[in-house]
Design brief:
The structure is a homotetramer. By secondary structure, the first copy, chain A, is mainly alpha-helical. Helix content of chain A is about 75%, strand content about 0%. Chain A is built from seven helices and no strands. The longest helix of chain A is centred in the middle third of the chain and has 25 residues, at about 60-80. The two termini of chain A are about 30 Å apart. The relative contact order of chain A is 0.12. The model of chain A has no long low-confidence stretch (mean pLDDT about 90). Chains in contact: A-B, A-C, A-D, B-C, B-D, C-D. At the C-D interface, α1, α2, α3, α4 and α5 of C face α1, α2, α3, α4 and α5 of D.
């Protein structure tokens, strides 16, 4: 990792260290905290239509931004405690997906999309 | 956003566009995809002890890295479709947390930690 | 609990006992297994419209039924290991909800519904 | 379904109908509500050890019981809107699991357990 994520990683590492919270931050526990935050994102959208979810009012959008931040915080912490380079792993995964879903075979079809997943 | 995340965002935007998959990528749907990937991370750890979750074998660690990447991919896509700057939102949230959990009040206590959350 | 759930509870208790799997079935671990199964349900619906999710083909419906069953299995196990009567707790919660969402105040409005949640 | 679950199903059906909330209760939306409730269960346990999760104080246990109830409510609603018999589906799944995890092959081993999953 480098750049912005590296800075966030170090800041979050310090945040946990000075509070003596590393003892709670096992990968197992962090995976639970991450999914709990992901669920708060889901909760914002569960009774909205897809179109409504794309047209949030500013106050709602600010709440959703804070949920995305919470997810990102635990994602960075999980990667850090496991020694995983998040950027490199993601680049590898995108390359994998580009091979797995060839444009000419999956384009523009919900059906094909779903089947391919 | 800038740097590495900006590059990933543009690459993922292109990935969806050339496959004509933007039609599926409403924030509502992306929140579902994100939590489904978060659950695959949880699945790796659900029968492990906390200590075991910190000591994964290389092949398992590679699988976990791919799960973190999947989460990150949908997190970036969600932020992009909502027009949210993920880095800025996360910096704001960390500042908020630093004020919310003052070091001298929460340090080293699981009980205090849990109550404060 | 009584009746059908009681029978499932005893059968699942036996299932775990004869395999010596009680050692893995802490409430913490069971909550992780439960949400992992809930995510498999979500995965079936994440790229479908709401209307499509109400009109599944028979083979898809059978898969979804198996996901609901998996969720129910871990829900029953979690309640059992915690000594919670699932039926009684649910009746109490429905009564609570009936008071919390009075018909005349919340009827027929997505906005009110969302606000009240 | 029969007995207690049948009664809960009818009561929840009435609860939604008189509030005109069926319009929100697509299987897709109910799967989101269900996983959001599952995450609230996870949140109770995320910073606890497995042993602590088995020894909750009465007030915490009451909160956890309410979370299990919320999960059950959306599970019953999801099954109802999909026309799935939850008890029958669960009995089928348990039979499937009994064949999939033969006692003599999986007993007493975390490793085998994990591999078999």
């Amino acid at each position: 990792m480098s750049g912005d994520i590296e800075q966030l990683k170090l800041r979050l590492r310090e945040f946990a260290a000075v509070r003596d919270w590393d003892q709670f931050h096992s990968p197992k526990n962090l995976s639970m905290a991450l999914i709990a935050e992901a669920a708060e994102l889901v909760e914002h959208f569960q009774w909205l239509t897809e179109a409504q979810s794309s047209n949030l009012k500013p106050d709602k959008l600010a709440e959703v931004a804070a949920e995305l931040a919470d997810i990102f915080i635990y994602l960075i912490r999980a990667a850090d405690t496991l020694g995983i380079d998040l950027i490199a792993a993601t680049q590898r995964k995108i390359e994998h997906n580009e091979r797995k879903y060839p444009v000419e075979q999956v384009r523009g079809s919900a059906k094909k999309y779903t089947e391919y997943r």
